[in-house]
Amino acid sequence: MRILVTNDDGVRSPGIRALAEALSTIAEVWIVAPDRERSAASHSISLHRPLRISKVDERVFSTDGTPSDCVYLAVNHLLQGNRPDFLASGINHGPNLADDITYSGTVAAALEGTMLGIPSVAFSLCLRGRSTEGMAASAQFARSFMAGLAQRHLAPGILLNVNVPVGSDGASYRVTRQGKRAYGNEVIERTDPRGRRYYWVGGDELAHENIPGSDANAVYDEGVISVTPLHLNMTSDATREEMASWQFPGTARRDHE
Length: 257
What we know:
This protein is α/β, with parallel strands linked by helices and 257 residues long. It contains six helices and 13 strands.
């Protein structure tokens, strides 16, 4: 079994080292990760500039691109002809719960792997600051989870988003749905030494909505690992059916025969 490991925290982050070491006991591991932190890069890909690849160690490479770039380069170039069986992204230093998945480079790497037809999982440890508390338990769970996944069939177009709470025993998990979290909508304006204004955007996490069965409830209220299946096709079939009766002035709807 061959597993491609990547992240958005950088090729030298503690999380990717812990993940790769744990998975190396069950598979041949290749690391292709950004050369620096690329958190909140989302599913961006570099189409308008060249990318560079550096060999860090045996089967370990860094790129100056985004997490999605790393996966694309790994599958279509570095591992061309030796396609990975699975992709594991992480272990992210911080949660990727609820609305976080739309920004997350960690989840985006798993999205890219899924688009390329590789069963993919994103792993995150829900802590803040520089502490690595819980990293060993997260890696332990990742190893068991990936070993089990190898015995299952993950449907095409589906990826898995895993979040591990601090204090987890690395064993108890729940299959969840995407939840909802609130953030402060803060914009901080400052002035640089040359008198030009600049801005810091984003705010601190405030709270999560109480949605039974959600990823945030599992992690924050119940202290268990959250495993959320996500899919690439974002079509809302319910809304699509509802819109069949809509009419907009000056337009003509063309229905399928």
